[in-house]
Specification:
Blueprint (H helix, E strand, L loop, with lengths): L1 E10 L2 E9 L8 E7 L12 H13 L4 E8 L1 H17 L1 H4 L10 E6 L10 E4 L4 H13 L8 E8 L13 H10 L1 H7 L2 E7 L11 H15 L7 E5 L26 E5 L5 H9 L2 H4 L19 H13 L15 H7 L10 H10 L3 H19 L2 H11 L4 H6 L17
Parallel strand pairs: 1-4, 4-5, 6-7, 6-9, 7-8, 9-10
Antiparallel strand pairs: 1-2, 2-3, 3-8
Helix pairs in contact: 1-2, 1-7, 4-8, 8-10, 10-12, 11-13, 12-13
Length: 425
């Protein structure tokens, strides 16, 4: 893989970084990847290849590239960190990548070393979607960090191209993106935050993979953040899971630090509390409830649909906090047990939340809803158990250490449909 033809231009009110990426081991055309930032020039440094290198690492591993050759210079600190990042990924996902767990090859990074920029004043940013996790990061930061402290969040990054704009049936969703930003205005005014909208097509490097949540999301966010390293010194990525439920995942406490350069440090934030506890903390902040966006099916008339699995789960969590009636952005009222059984479809990334949610529902005397959640847990487990491919892969991976996969050389499949991701960035 080669990364070349870096460009930085101003287009209207946006700063646009772009570069070409060509493949060497895959029969794929050269692609132009871009990042369009609604920020002034002070956020940018010259000849910054870091966003494109970070965007390319996981697709390169997935597609069997032997090297990433960067036409320009990169921070040696970042290069060394990315070797550790790749080591974690190949150790966690060796079976998916069809490599030997004990001797997994790493993609070689070829680039000149660049000297760090002149040290700039500390400035902390955070990724923000309007969802529970990012609101929790912001609320905790405002409560615990004085505004004059360098760790106080000043900038929030809102990305188009991670969940919005990646599903062909919903079009570009740029109008919805602008609508969400307008709905966040009250929260931004109250907190004094500067919102930086970003448009990127980086997922086009591998748009039909099954890897976004497990492998790609963390380095993709880091790629966006590194484009702003002219002013940002630190950026926070909100945790998806609490400490007891951490598992191999694209965003993880051991992963984010390995996506840092000398100029920009990436931090994993907020893994101490469970999802139910985070919702309780966020729900005590009125402006957050007025801005809460957890849904992938909102439109220019509403932030949330109120009936998808993510909306149902958030409603149950708000019910446990005693704040569901005040959550004006979640239409449809309190879900019944039958609605939960019919609509709370679980996936591998959401099953971990259910035990905590079930206990919280029991704690407020809603055994009917707790039983409905338990029903969905059993339904998920049964569906997994009766899928003979899942069972065979588990046996081969755990007992035979991939012997049968290597014997028949069954490569990791590329899912020929866009990925649906439940968690906004």
């Amino acid at each position: 893989m080669k990364i070349f033809d870096l460009s930085h231009q101003q287009e209207g009110g946006y700063q646009v970084l772009s570069a070409s990426i060509s493949w060497e081991e895959s029969d794929r055309p050269t692609q132009q990847i871009s990042f369009r930032y609604g920020a002034d020039k002070s956020y940018f440094i010259s000849e910054n290849y870091h966003p494109f290198l970070l965007a390319a690492v996981i697709p390169a591993i997935r597609r069997g590239e032997r090297r990433i050759h960067v036409e320009g210079a990169i921070c040696p600190w970042l290069k060394d960190n990315l070797l550790s990042f790749m080591s974690y990924m190949t150790n966690w996902y060796w079976y998916k990548y069809d490599v030997d767990k004990d001797d997994a090859p790493l993609v070689t990074i070829e680039a000149r070393s660049r000297q760090p920029e002149i040290r700039k004043p500390a400035n902390t940013g955070a990724f923000f979607s309007g969802g529970v996790d990012s609101l929790y990061t912001l609320r905790r930061n405002r409560l615990n960090i004085p505004r004059e402290h360098p760790g106080s969040i000043n900038d929030v990054i809102f990305v188009h191209g991670f969940d919005m704009g990646t599903r062909p049936k919903r079009g570009t969703e740029e109008d919805y993106f602008k609508y969400v930003i307008d709905e966040l205005k009250g929260l931004l005014d109250e907190t004094g935050l500067n919102l930086i909208p970003v448009f990127t097509n980086l997922r086009q490097l591998d748009p039909y993979t099954d890897c976004w949540l497990d492998e790609y999301m963390g380095s993709a966010m880091a790629a966006v953040a590194h484009g702003l390293s002219g002013r940002l010194t630190d950026v926070l990525v909100s945790s998806s899971y609490e400490i007891p439920k951490l598992h191999p995942f694209a965003s993880h406490p051991v992963i984010e630090p390995r996506l840092s350069s000398y100029d920009l440090r990436v931090h994993h934030d907020g893994e101490r509390l469970s999802r139910v506890e985070r919702v309780k903390m966020v729900s005590q902040w009125p402006i957050a409830l007025a801005s809460l966006r957890v849904c992938f099916f909102g439109d220019q008339t509403q932030l949330n649909c109120g009936k998808c699995p993510k909306c149902l789960r958030t409603k149950l969590e708000l019910l446990c906090a005693g704040k569901l009636q005040e959550a004006c952005t979640l239409p449809g009222g309190e879900p019944t047990a039958s609605i939960v059984r019919a609509g709370l479809h679980l996936q591998s990334d959401t099953i971990q939340f259910m035990s905590t949610l079930r206990r919280a529902l029991q704690g407020i005397g809603r055994s009917d809803l707790a039983r409905a959640v338990k029903y969905k847990e059993w339904e998920y487990a049964l569906a997994y158990a009766v899928n003979w491919r899942n069972v065979f892969k588990s046996i081969d991976r755990v007992i035979f250490h991939g012997m049968f996969k290597r014997m028949f050389r069954v490569k990791a499949p590329v899912v020929e449909k866009p990925v649906f991701t439940e968690k906004p960035s």
